[in-house]
Amino acid sequence: MNRLGGATSPYLQQHADNPVDWWPWCAEAFEEARRRDVPVLISVGYAACHWCHVMAHESFEDEAVGRLLNDNFVSIKVDREERPDVDAVYMTATQAMTGQGGWPMTVFATPDGTPFFCGTYYPRANFVRLLESVTTAWRDQRDAVVEQGAALVQAIGGAQAVGGPAAPLTAELLDAAATQLAKEYDGTNGGFGGAPKFPPHMNLLFLLRHHQRTGDRQSLELVRHTAEAMARGGIYDQLAGGFARYSVDAHWTVPHFEKMLYDNALLLRVYTQLWRLTGDPMARRIAAETTEFLLGDLATPAGGLASALDADTDGVEGATYAWTPDQLVEVLGDDDGRWAADLFAVTATGSFEHGTSVLRLARDVDDADPAVRDRWRRVRERLRTARAARPQPARDDKVVASWNGLAVTALAEYAVLTGDTAAGDAAVRIAGVLADRHVVDGRLRRVSRDGVVGDPAGVLEDHGCVAEAFAAVHQLTGDGRWLALAGQLLDTALARFATGAGGFYDTADDAEQLVTRPADPTDNATPSGQSALVAALVTYSALTGEPRYRQAAETALATIAPIVARHARFTGYAAAVGEALLSGPYEIAVVTDDPAGDPLVEAAHRHAPPGAVIVAGEPDRSGVPLLASRPRVDGRPTAYVCRGFVCDRPVTDAADLVAQLT
Asked: Phi, psi (5° rounding) for residue 356?
């Protein structure tokens, strides 16, 4: 009996009709394995994963494979986005055993959950042989299997160990991290490393803040070059906006076509801040288009933002997005079709599969002649309309708390800098979904779908990202409710996730006990739970004036500092928070009746140092500590700038405010 039909996860529901007797992750599944005395297959993936679909089609939809699994195993299907704790434990095991990881992840475990053999994608023939070999080993070599599993658990327990060396995250360490990133930089194509190449959003955020603090022009140029290369590449959707998860090559040409919420949220922050610091029209355009993508393609009817768009369309990767020259002519006519082929680098030989091309921007349009920009916009809209008539990729419409938190922070930043009220309204609305739906009995839940919250408990990254989002909405609105909610989540995290040695586990002390308790401090596709929490602690401390939250942040950062010194590429968010702490962060309060239009407020946002907090509104507004005891000077709107709880003289002129901030 397949038990996935009622799951909240679209990924699990994709497997509800398999001939495999799937179980969701639950205690009953392991009890069934103990009763039958059979091993457990734990298959981990996510809805937008191309190779997950391939393995499902080749193996899990096959009747013969289903019989093998049903006769000899208890099979458990896990959505890694819904249960990142389960994914983290078994991914560590997979990496320890094979030297690499990825999805689909295929783990064989004892009935108590101890992994003894791990891998990723297997073609059908290989998978069948593996199932037969594991079945034989379980029957004839049980002691060796159990011994191997115990050794693997001991190894991954060491990999997840906490309480290692700690040191303050100093200016010297952050300077060294920026230097290391510059040495590893791809000076030709932008970004870091070779193929596959992922958008390095957190490193770019760090480098932007590092440039602000130090004036280092090289750091800014690395961001500018990478941002332009990605925006003009195939990894960016040239018709509808939004970034794909990664490029399969080193030069951003051909993407792996899935679009993830977290990538686009973090990249929205990068392009918004790049525009703020440089006035680059390309950065402004990409920020606007990414906002449109988030609020258009990922908005769900029940509120919140969907997790991802699939890599495949009807089982074919990239089918929605690729073009031939003839297809362009068919939509646009001869003249515009040839012009578009030249502009978007669509050739007869193609850059993708079967003679098709992924659209890239071969020439600059942001600084082009107005007539060229107008033509580009008209052509782009006609192609977008034509593409909308094609079959579209599926959407994973579950709402993940941490990823929506990242989006709320990005939308709030974009709204205050551009005056985009729709983005600001969306930030408040999504924050409301997180507050009203995902906080249940005072505890945070990780996912919801169709307006119904799921069972999985929030992990550390959920608490950090959502608390940071609530703090951002507090600054956007001046509403004390959001600051109070942020404080509640942070207090829960400090009480339930702390290791006792300054760092944090990824799961709460009262969460389901897995074979190890995960605690990964490195930033990967998303900020680590520890980096996300530290960011929220620093912001909350600055907004409230309560030093114990800053002290907790500094202590936690000290546990990450040795990793920053050695592996800068995998600590970008932590390093960005470190820059905020070194900068202050500044606390800026503007007493005004017109928070949306006051020149002091605009100057504060445009010239804010790294990590600064900014609140505007009437003096002594309830629930807004930064506005307490801050009167107007001579009856005029007044700005108060503090750093480390030490304040400059209040000013009423925007130029004077800028002078205090720069």
From this structure: -95, 165
Most distant pair of Cα atoms in the chain: their distance: 88
**Burial of residue 241 (number of CB atoms within 10 Å: 0-12, 13-18, 19+):** buried
659 Cβ partners below 8 Å, 6+ apart? none
Q: Is 65 in contact with 124 (CB distance < 8 Å)?
A: yes
Residue 298 DSSP label: S
Chain-centroid distance, C-alpha 501: 27
Question: Cis ω on the peptide bond leading into residue 585 (within 30° of 0)?
Answer: yes
- Decide: helix, strand or coil at residue 343: helix
Which strand (E) or helix (H) includes residue 145? Answer: helix 142-159
Its pTM stands at 0.93
With contact defined as beta carbons under 8 Å apart, do 382 and 331 qualify? yes
Task: Tell me the average confidence (pLDDT) per consecutive run of 10 residues in the chain, 662 residues long.
Answer: 87 94 96 96 92 93 96 96 94 87 94 92 94 93 86 71 75 96 95 94 98 97 98 97 96 95 98 98 98 97 95 88 97 97 96 95 94 96 97 95 98 97 98 97 95 96 98 97 98 96 94 91 94 98 96 95 90 97 96 94 96 96 94 94 88 95 92
Compute CA distances 613 → 313, 462, 473, 542, whole Å: 43, 21, 11, 7
Cα(first)–Cα(last) distance of the chain, in Å? 65
Which tokens hold the place of 324? 């031939």
Q: Is the peptide bond before 196 cis (omega within 30 degrees of 0)?
A: yes
- Residue whose structure tokens are 């959505």: 79
Q: What phi and psi values does residue 404 have, to the nearest 5 degrees?
A: -65, -35
